[in-house]
Amino acid sequence: MASINVDGASSAPGETGGGLRNRKGKNFVAAEETQLCRSFLFISQEPSIENGQKSVGFWHRVQVHFNVNRPVGCGERPARSLETKWGIIKHDVAKFIENYGAVRAESESGTSSEEMLQRALELYKQKHPNKQSFTFIHCWLVLKDSPRWSDAREDVRKTPLLKRKIPGASTDLDKGEVEMIDVMREGLREDVKKVPPMKRKSEVEMINAIKAQARATADMAAATWRKVAILEEQSTMALFSMPEDQLVSEEAREYFKLRRGEELQKLRARLRITSIQPDPTEACEILGAAPPGVASQRSTD
Fold first, then answer.
1. Is residue 168 located within the same domain as residue 226?
2. Which of 28, 80, 147, 240 is deepest in the core (most CB within 10 A)?
3. What's the rounded Cα separation, in Å, for the pair 253 and 261?
4. Residue 120 has pLDDT above 70, yes or no
5. For residue 195, what are the domain limits?
6. Which has the minimum average pLDDT: 47-51, 55-59, 136-140, 189-193?
7. Looking at residue 281, what is its pLDDT?
8. Which long-range contacts (CB under 8 A, 24 or more apart) does 245-250 make?
9. Separation of alpha carbons 301 and 297, rounded Å
10. What gap in Å lies between CA 142 and CA 41, rounded to an integer?
11. Which residue ranges are recorded for the region named Disordered (predicted)?
12. Contact at 8 Å (CB) between 268 and 274?
């Protein structure tokens, strides 16, 4: 059985059944496409959508959420680029869901999910006008478990473009987006009834809150590291301040001697003076041992 690439790179522009092309900017990588799906679902579930969200305002909020949560190493994306990319993803994922549903309906009991997925991928490629493979599995994995997506999927191939005029909007929603948002409203209606109306925070407030949380997390981590460093320093000082007469066994004295030597080596390495040999008398005093010549004098006294 052929392997299934879940985290593969994004398809090149234009490699979709919808014929849509992302001609401007760098190609999306898989991590960006995954985040775009998450951002679309997140903004679609906001209570303000219940009151009729304008297309231009909707995609501006998707843009803010996407750019705040964009993958590491990826640049910011304009709202128009995200909207265009979502149209490609929505089309291909909707077609793949049709194929997956057909395979699942025809599969016998006991067929594994991996087998059904592989058959759906093969069916998608067979039915594609250009025999192209499905390249948005990572997006499907995000969308397939969302009740709002599964309830809102439409037959993209058979559904013509439908314009819904929205006063004050610079762009219109196509029929697929209208149907998806309508179904999402139904899923949210009961939840909205349970909570009092709240004023939506502006995009600036949301970004500032996220930045403040990040700073607080960084400060907490730094404080924790400082505390650990202090405890380690106290432990090291106790190692060198232990009186010899409290070491009741030869093993204990040997252990402390070795541990002190180990800490001294770490300190020398940190100060980059490992090539400089310390005075033998100072080293013996730090380690708690008698300097050369003193031991023999003590033994004869």
1. no
2. 28
3. 12
4. yes
5. 30-200
6. 189-193
7. 57
8. none
9. 6
10. 9
11. 1-22
12. yes
Q: Report whether 45 contacts 38 (CB < 8 A).
A: no
Look at residues 183, 200, 217 and tell me which one is the last residue of a structural domain. 200
Q: Amino acid identity, residue 265? A: Q
Q: Is 149 exposed, middle or buried (0-12, 13-18, 19+ CB in 10 A)?
A: buried
- Asked if residue 13 belongs to a domain, the reply is no
Residue 163 and residue 11: Cα distance in Å, rounded? Answer: 28
Q: Which two tokens stand for residue 164?
A: 């819904």
Whether the CB-CB separation of 288 and 260 falls below 8 Å is answered with yes
Q: How many domains does the chain have?
A: 2
Q: Is residue 12 part of a domain?
A: no
Helices (H), 107-249: 113-127, 137-143, 147-152, 175-194, 203-241
Residue that the structure tokens 């998707």 belong to: 62
Share of the chain above pLDDT 70, in %: 55
Q: Is residue 15 part of a domain?
A: no
Would the pTM count as exceeding 0.90? Answer: no
- Give the model's pLDDT for residue 198: 47
Q: Is 14 domain-assigned?
A: no
- Spatial distance between the Cα atoms of 231 and 292, rounded to a whole number of angstroms: 34
pLDDT, tens digit, for every residue of 230-283?
A: 877 777 777 677 777 767 777 777 877 887 888 887 777 777 654 555 555 555
Q: What does the pLDDT look like over 198-212, one tens digit per residue? A: 444 455 666 677 777
3-state helix, strand and coil shares in percent for the chain, rounded to the nearest 5: 65, 0, 35
Statement to judge: residues 180 and 217 lie in one domain: no
